[in-house]
User: Fold Pycsar effector protein domain-containing protein from Streptococcus oralis ATCC 49296.
Amino acid sequence: MSYDELKAIYDDTSGWLKFIEAKLAVFLTFETGLIYFLLKLNEGHEKNFLFLILGLIGVLVSIILIIGALLPTISKSSNPLYFMSWTDKGYDYTDSIKYEHYKKQIREVAQVSKRKMCFLRYSLIIYVFSIILVVIGTYC
Assistant:
């Protein structure tokens, strides 16, 4: 694989990471807003509080998962493509970015993207079940 091909793959992988993080922010906003709407909709109905409490706990777990996925994981890396390397006082800025650096960074960005998608998947599954519990607790 050539240097330009690796750079293109790196750019695509970084683009996917940005897309996943945007989805996480949208789902966090959606989940928070929808649970507020459901709680306001519940007023005046008889409620099964066990289902409501389980549903709300599930929603909180779901929101915590998304917030956990949005928090950056910062680790020390010798890769000059990794942004934290640029903050080191001893880093030589004249060092050129090498072929191996792109390979390593592509792998690292792909692993971060996979972890964030896993958090998002579990958060959405828990959230859907929680909303079902809230609806059952409200209307049944």
User: Anything to note?
Assistant: Helices lie at 3-41, 49-70, 99-139.
